[in-house]
Amino acid sequence: MKAHPYALSKTRCHYAATRAGLEFVITRRPFKTPFYSVAQSLDAAGMPVAIGYNALLLARVGEVIGMAINGQRLWRRIEQLAAFTESQRPYTRRAFTELHRQSRVWLRSQFEEAGLSVATDAGGNLIGRLGGANPSLKPILTGSHSDTVPQGGRFDGIAGVLAGLEVAHALSDCGARMQHPLEVVDFLSEEPSDYGVSCVGSRAMVGRLTPEMLQQTAADNSKLRDAINGVGGQPARLNRPLRPAGSIAGFFELHIEQGPVLEAEGLDIGIVTDIVGIRRLGLVVKGAADHAGTTPMGLRRDALVGAAKIVSWVNDYACSGSDEQTYLVGTVGKLEVIPNGANVVPGEVRMTLEMRGNSETKVDEFAVEAVAFAKAVCGEMGLDFSHALLSASTPMSCHPFVQTAIEQACRERGAAYRSMASGAGHDAAYMGRLGPSGMIFIPCLSGRSHCPEEWASAEQLALGAQILLDAMLIFDQSRC
Ligand SMILES: [Zn+2]
């Protein structure tokens, strides 16, 4: 491996490399270069390598040395994996079904084709591993999920699994290794399955799958623990984290945005700053179901009128509580009116109030104030009010090092980007408990997701995967 004297600028470096007939040029200072070990492994694999002297931009170095992802291969795999769908209900590939099992047989074969060693962990996560140049380092993980909601889309989840696989495959193609071991994860059942639990695999990995969750049953009375066993997991081992906090060097998840912001602003990449915490409350407003014709307005106890005031208050509160720093949304998305008759005054309303935000304090305040308002308004109207906490998850802040690596990769590739909070939950929210974690969003058509119309183009996916690779290489080198 010889030092290359011509590498004075990016353009001249390219030119010099071409003139010299070199396939690969490394343009960071020798020995201190983050890519020096990559150069060594390329050299060991018999590929022409040269070292330049000036510190060029890392992402460009990745490009120069040929570590570009293969966008066509990625797109082909998206089409192949999306084709594992219930034929009557595209695109449906529910966790724990025979169809999902078959898709994982295929996925395993693709992991192996990329040179990964494959295993299923006790939480039922399918994991492909590529050894690192320095095996003593903790692994860097990437991935997402391969299950779908009923009648979902072709990109939610699998974009991240297959982009992660493409990162590993691109490294394998060059005979290169990161410093850290690389693991590509297909997390089990990120979407709420028939057992009613979401993020089964990532919860299991960090020890947040409770005994109560494992006992939850589906319509056929089978238990989640048996279902995990059925996909090759070991539920008996899930009473503690499969990986302790601090056991990973980092985690990157690529995902479609599932919202309209990037497309509307004409941007390529979203750098996720926070993943929201979600609080769900069950609210019950009780009045009296009376005859809609004979009960005078002044004598009614109409539960729906009280509920409507609460719904309206929630909307106003969330609107006024959001600003540049604070992401806050509130939704009453489920409403059951009893008895729900055209000629009956509504006697009872059961509804769910869901609040999401990037600040736990703000979500807490929202919940407290919502309950206080509901009590007060129901009191004034002679209605009874009760509430119960249905679920709560804490927000996760994406690690600054991960965000910085993604931003640097975007700048070097000329990708247009912005920082943004994720209003949707993701496996990364749990992985943040193990080590520095973050997410890359790519745009999706009209912001549509969880529906058959969900769409991202081959170019958007390829750029996202390239940013993922570049960012992981930057992170890999900076964390040694
Ligand atoms: Zn998803």
Count the helices. How many?
Answer: 15
Small-molecule components bound: zinc ion
Distance between the termini: 23 Å
Question: What is the total domain count?
Answer: 3
Q: What is the CATH topology classification name of the largest domain?
A: Aminopeptidase
Query: In terms of per-residue confidence, which ranges show pLDDT below 50 for 5 or more consecutive residues?
Result: 1-34, 51-66
Going by CATH, the architecture of the largest domain would be: 3-Layer(aba) Sandwich
Main CATH class of the largest domain: Alpha Beta
Number of strands: 16
Outline:
elongated
CATH superfamily of the largest domain: Zn peptidases
Average pLDDT confidence is 88
Task: Compile the SSE list and pairings.
Elements: E1 2-3, H1 10-19, E2 24-26, H2 36-44, E3 49-51, H3 58-64, H4 71-82, H5 98-113, E4 117-120, E5 126-130, E6 140-145, H6 158-173, E7 182-187, H7 200-206, H8 211-214, H9 224-230, E8 250-256, H10 261-264, E9 269-275, E10 277-286, H11 303-321, E11 328-338, E12 348-357, H12 360-380, E13 384-392, E14 396-397, H13 400-413, E15 417-422, H14 427-431, E16 437-442, H15 458-478
Parallel strand pairs: 1-3, 2-3, 6-7, 6-8, 8-16, 9-15
Antiparallel strand pairs: 4-5, 5-7, 9-14, 9-16, 10-12, 10-13, 11-12
Helix pairs in contact: 4-6, 4-15, 6-15, 11-12, 13-15
Bound molecules: zinc ion.
Residues 145, 156-157, 190, 255 line the site of zinc ion.
Provide a short characterization of the protein structure:
With 480 residues, the protein is α/β, with parallel strands linked by helices. 36% of the residues lie in helices and 20% in strands. It folds into three domains: 2-64, no CATH class; 71-275 and 397-478, Aminopeptidase (3-Layer(aba) Sandwich); 277-392, 2-Layer Sandwich (Alpha-Beta Plaits).
